[in-house]
Amino acid sequence: MGADLDFYYFYAFVEIQMSANGKGKRGVTRYSDWMMQLPPELHNIPLFNLAIPGSHDSMSYDLDSSSSIIEPDSLKKFSRLCCVRKTLLKWAATQEDTITKQLDAGVRYFDLRIARKPHDTNPTRLYFYHGLYTRTDVESVLKMINDWAERHPREIIILALSHFKGFDQKTELHNHLISFIKTLFGTKVVLRGVTPTLRSCWDQGTNVIVSYDYPAIHDSYMWSKISYFYGDSMKIARVESVLSEHHYFARDPTGFFVCGLNLTLPDDARICLYVLRLCDSFANVVRRSLPRLLLWVKQQGSRKPNIVASDLAGREDFVSAVIQYNYYLLLSASIPL
């Protein structure tokens, strides 16, 4: 099958071939355990070459409307106005499902942006953020993820920690967070510098990969920044154009690579064109745009999208479209299911 084969045909072909082999939709019966249900032919290929569903701004379902505004800069001065915070909440919440529900739905990559509140009485307490701080602190959420990882030892979870707003180059905060992560996940962590496969992770009893986007940190437990490409626009055509360009020219076959289907609000006064739509919300915009963006994923042929991150990532149509891509790759290589 050529890379330019129309998605209607190759996805139909996948479904027909799976049905002919007695699989049908039984290829993956539970999205909470989809990795362990993949065909044996996929167990020994690098995780860099698997199609993996991910979520963008994964903790934004938990944003606190009483929080001060920490971005964008153009709205910070309105932090004391409740109506502005609530409006920002409608447009900053890119996810609706809890972290556990996202995991159960099949999401395996998490975009986790970390911040410290400037006047917190606890010097090491951290939160996630996206425009506003979250209500739940970082350590509590990581414990939830660890509990889930223990119940699903054959599902590989990728945590991308980044931004670290309010750390102000305080090495002690980074050291505290890394020490907590190493103690919490322990031997479940996939060490940096290896080429992980499903089989190698299962054999070694590891199922958590931690990417830590802070160049000054050099630790065998912490992977470096994972490349994340996105359109930086609310216009679907622009998102598709940028992602297509990076698929051709920027993909590193020896590492993880994220295609972000997410839409992005302007960080200047143009943001008002969206947030002043009183009867609309970011979630509604995503619901209208995601079907077309999923077409882009399905049209990529042999270009191997690896991690595909989205807003509203818990939606079954998103998760199933990404997971299904793994079966297409098998069929395109003439490997029997």
From TrEMBL:
Coiled coil: none annotated. SMART domains: PLCXc. InterPro entries: PI-PLC_domain (IPR051057), PLC-like_Pdiesterase_TIM-brl (IPR017946), PLipase_C_PInositol-sp_X_dom (IPR000909). Residues 41-212 form the Phosphatidylinositol-specific phospholipase C X domain. It holds the Pfam family PI-PLC-X. PROSITE patterns: PIPLC_X_DOMAIN. Signal peptide: none annotated. GO terms for biological process: lipid metabolic process. Transmembrane segments: none annotated. GO terms for molecular function: phosphoric diester hydrolase activity. This is Phosphatidylinositol-specific phospholipase C X domain-containing protein. It comes from Anabas testudineus.
